[in-house]
């Protein structure tokens, strides 16, 4: 299909703009450390929290030294700190994952609402990363493609909620750690690949691609 001009670079660009493997892997390390620390410390919350904070700080320091944006790095570290604070406050190890459950539920709702109001968040994220601001919305084909592809992200967030909630309610800490690892990088990779496939299938033949939004037909004719 000759749909999208960025066939060679679009998949890579989409992965990079959405965080890609780097962000997904980084997000799994503190929860994994929490589970290991919790087990090694005799299933105490403090053991898990200390391990998660140490690993989270190490990941943040590594990313900053590698020249990554401080804002995104610090947001990731802040999420670990908030999760640790919740677990310490309640004394329940499973509460370390409460923020993750709420974040996925909120993200699913936000993506769904964005599609309904014709501001699909996938387009917002990619368009911002490409420096397009709102120009992509003036391309009806691209707007439609982002809207359809955004449903992929609604589905992946809902899948996490469906898996996490029963484990959280039954205090299955080890299972929560395993689910967090299994449903982060592999699921993100699948969502990126599937959403890119949806975009390519939706864009008509000859469309210039994500990096070059086409003006509406009535403007092209003038």
Automatic annotation (TrEMBL):
Keywords in alphabetical order: Membrane, Transmembrane, Transmembrane helix
Superkingdom field: Bacteria
Pfam families: DUF3159 (PF11361)
Organism taxonomic ancestry: Bacteria, Bacillati, Actinomycetota, Actinomycetes, Micromonosporales
Source species: Micromonospora zhanjiangensis
Protein name, entry field: DUF3159 domain-containing protein
TM ranges: 38-60, 72-88, 108-130, 151-169, 175-199
């Amino acid at each position: 299909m000759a749909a999208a001009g960025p066939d060679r670079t679009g998949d890579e660009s989409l992965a990079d703009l959405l965080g890609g493997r780097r962000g997904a892997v980084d997000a799994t390390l503190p929860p994994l450390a929490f589970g290991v620390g919790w087990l090694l410390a005799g299933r105490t919350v403090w053991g898990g929290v200390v391990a998660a904070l140490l690993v989270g700080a190490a990941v943040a320091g590594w990313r900053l030294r590698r020249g990554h944006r401080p804002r995104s790095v610090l947001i990731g570290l802040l999420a670990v700190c908030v999760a640790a604070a919740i677990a310490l406050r309640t004394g329940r190890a499973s509460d370390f994952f409460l923020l993750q459950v709420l974040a996925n539920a909120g993200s699913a709702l936000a993506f769904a609402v964005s599609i309904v109001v014709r501001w699909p968040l996938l387009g917002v994220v990619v368009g911002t990363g490409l420096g397009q601001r709102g120009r992509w919305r003036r391309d009806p084909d691209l707007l439609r493609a982002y809207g359809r592809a955004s449903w992929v992200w609604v589905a992946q967030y809902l899948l996490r909620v469906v898996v996490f909630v029963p484990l959280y309610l039954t205090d299955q800490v080890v299972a929560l750690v395993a689910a967090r690892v299994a449903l982060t990088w592999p699921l993100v990779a699948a969502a990126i690949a599937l959403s890119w496939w949806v975009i390519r299938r939706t864009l008509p033949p000859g469309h210039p691609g994500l990096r070059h939004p086409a003006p509406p037909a009535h403007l092209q004719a003038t």
